[in-house]
Design goal:
With 418 residues, this protein is an alpha+beta fold. The chain is built from eleven helices and 23 strands. Helix 1 packs parallel to helix 11 and helix 5 packs across helix 11. The longest helix has 17 residues. It is globular, with a radius of gyration of 21 Å. The model has no long low-confidence stretch (mean pLDDT 95).
Length: 418
């Protein structure tokens, strides 16, 4: 099978990239070992996060560092056995989180954040997925008056970016969410982001649109990717084995998230990628209780989101090796806090879901050409913002593949920076 482009990985990054390549007039095959949207894209908090201008940084206060080192914080957890392999990444992450470097990371991802929703909107409309959206923004809640005051100062830093947010006191929060069971210090309500009630359903809507446009979704192993070198016509083409036979293309996009190293590693690239693992569980709300907004509990480090299946609790970051067995410690730590905050009844899932967020130490994704292999393109490393940045990443990749003028300078996302 011959296509103009092959996208390896059918998570939300790969799906959106395939659609943007189709928008640019390319015939596309999408290849994955499993069904579309069933990996890391399946279980996120469901926010197209237009308001997250500053990436999640490594804590730098001595008190916070000591608390994380003791490994008892609800928002972060690490596997001690993984530290020998993780320490080089964590050291680079810590260094990149100092104020000047963090500001540079913010400036690098800013064009992606500013255009994230605008690039999703046409895909959502074309795929008929509007019913999955809740245009209510999300709310960051605070128990601690000190943290609330710090959040107000941080929110004010966003004013130059023309974002819309509202400072909410305890009484105002009670009006927004009348079923909360605790009295809190206050909240910040971010209005620009859009929430998705079923991220997996959005992936399926994108897949259906891709197929309706003539795209081929094939099961195959990305590790079989090779570059053909015989024959004048085939020289430089890439080929990957699938259940339907080999599929070849001049351009191949690696959008495999935390598994991208299965392609770039054998080709000689050594990128400092790690994973931030996360867990979720769904709950039935008690009685007639309703959660109107997605809530981030800033003091306890978890998110509660109203989803099609129920109330989804998603955890913070677990630093572990990608393929280590699940250890839902953070779920056990945060569930009691969530139950005190909002009336949750029984768990709805047989076991906690776990996903791997692919992260770079400088908090900037890898988007663009492979430095030493023409026709090979990278699109991974989006950490907490895979859903958020998926469509805008697809746009940038499509512009680079087709030789169009990119909407923003792609240099900050280059793999060559490592």
């Amino acid at each position: 099978m011959q296509r103009d482009a092959v996208v390896l990985g059918a998570g939300i990054i790969g799906l959106a990239t395939a659609l943007k390549l189709q928008d640019a007039g390319r015939s596309v095959a999408l290849v994955d070992r499993q069904e579309a949207g069933q990996g890391t894209s399946f279980g996120n908090a469901g926010i197209i996060e237009r308001a997250s201008i500053y990436p999640y940084a490594f804590p730098r206060r001595l008190g916070d560092l000591a608390r994380y080192a003791l490994n008892g914080a609800p928002e972060a957890y690490y596997h001690p056995s993984a530290l020998p392999k993780l320490l080089p990444f964590l050291w680079r992450f810590w260094r990149a989180s100092e104020p000047e470097s963090h500001e540079q990371a913010m400036r690098a991802v800013l064009p992606l954040i500013e255009n994230c929703l605008a690039e999703h909107e046409p895909l959502i409309a074309a795929s008929g997925a509007e019913a999955l959206l809740r245009r209510t923004g999300w709310v960051k809640i605070f128990r601690s008056p000190r943290k609330f005051e710090e959040a107000l100062a941080a929110a004010r830093l966003l004013k130059p970016f023309r974002l819309h947010f509202e400072i909410v006191d305890a009484a105002g929060l009670a009006k927004l969410e009348p079923n909360l069971q605790e009295t809190l210090a206050g909240a910040v309500h971010y209005h620009d982001p859009v929430c998705v009630s079923d991220p997996a359903a959005l992936s399926m809507a994108y897949l259906n649109l891709f197929r309706a446009r003539g795209g081929a979704f094939l099961h195959g192993d990305a590790a079989t990717l090779v570059q053909e070198s015989t024959g004048q016509q085939s020289a430089g083409r890439w080929s990957v084995k699938t259940e339907a036979g080999p599929v070849a293309a001049r351009d191949v996009v690696v959008a495999l998230g935390p598994w991208s190293d299965t392609v770039y590693g054998p080709l000689g690239y050594r990128l400092p990628m790690a994973v931030k693992r996360g867990y979720h569980m769904h709950y039935r709300p008690a009685g007639n209780a309703v959660l109107n907004h997605t809530l981030l509990d800033a003091d306890k480090g978890y998110v509660l989101a109203p989803m099609a299946r129920g109330i989804r609790l998603t955890t913070g970051a677990e630093f572990a090796l990608r393929d280590a067995p699940p250890t839902p410690v953070q779920l056990a730590r945060t569930e009691p806090h969530a139950r005190r905050l909002f009336p949750l009844e029984t768990r709805l899932d047989a076991r906690p879901w776990m996903g791997n967020r692919p992260a770079t130490p400088d908090m900037v994704p890898v988007i663009g050409p492979a430095p030493r292999h023409p026709g090979l393109w990278f699109a991974f490393g989006h950490a907490h913002h895979g859903l958020t940045m998926s469509a805008v990443t697809g746009r940038l990749i499509a512009e680079l593949v087709t030789g169009a003028t990119p909407f923003t300078d792609p240099a900050p996302y280059s793999a060559a920076r490592f």
